Amino acid sequence: MAIRSSPSLVRPVALSLLMSTVSFLRGEVRRPLPALIALLGLAGVAEGAGFPGPSDTQNIGLRSGWNAVFVHLDPVDPAPAAVFANVPVDKVAAYFPTRTPVEFIQDPASEPWKQPGWRAWFAPGLPEAAISDLHAITGGEAYLVHATAAATWTIEGTVIFRPTRWRADSFNFVGFPVDPANPPTIQGWFAGWTAYLSTTRNLVYTLDTTERWVPVARPTTTVIQPNAAYWVFCPGASDYQGPLSVVLPHGVQGRLDFGDVGESQILKLANNLPHPVDVALTLSPATALPLAYEQRLPELGDTMRVGLTTPWRLGPLERGEAQSLRLVLDRAAMSQPAGAAVLTLSDDVGSLIRIPVTGKLP
Predict the structure, then answer these.
(1) Which domains does the chain have, with CATH numbers?
(2) Contact (CB, 8 A) for 187 and 282
């Protein structure tokens, strides 16, 4: 997967976007803040002003009929007509939580987008096209995608970090940041979530080949698909993010932006599992930013900076252990006025958390 710095982009402002903006201001669109930010083209303001973040490509295999997919990138142009150009897709739907919990799941054939909280896009030429109200495809969101033929959907976009925001006592339409080369099982991913382990109820549902939502019958052997979306019931309030959780500095959303003056940023890591996990750091491309990890040397009462030019193993995080990770940007070693890279945190369970990092010279 090639990571590159995306060029400056000017997103077209269509009439449909203006209508969605007006609806938002009138309080008629209940979208999570990141989705609204992307919809209004303000991602650079709220999630790292100035220099654009690193870009990447996501390939999603679609079967003919309905697919439940999870988008990991913010598309270059978020308008559905642009995102699905040259792809045999005619209908797309997304659910944005309302004040009313989701207690029952509807199969795609029942047209759930007619219910509160749903937004849908219909391709030009369909009779329903005039009532399309899904105006942007954003990263960190789950979608129902109807394909008229089997195809590969390729998304060009910006890497973004958006943790799951659970709606308590409700089904949530979500996906997970898992390693395609080492995907965890459902049971392995949720092994640190007490509420999940303490119930006999089926909490995770997947869309099967007959386009019906069915409970995952064998969570101990069923692996999570990186590009798939699931309905997951959240019993009570929760901020569970999987085996490994990563928290950005207070007030920071979407990415780590050192700007033109910041020297260091602190990430907070936590092992949520009942056993140790091995954590590794990788920066890609390693030459884009001279980034270092500040390692403590307790026996010397000092610290040592480890350059992230090659993958670095942090070592095991013990059961329930939390750790602060200080990252330092060496501007004196920057060869370009600005740079962007992706910091990947992975563990031996199958987590793969990607955080865009940017920085520039004064």
Answers:
(1) 1-7+50-240 (no CATH), 244-360 (2.60.40.10)
(2) no
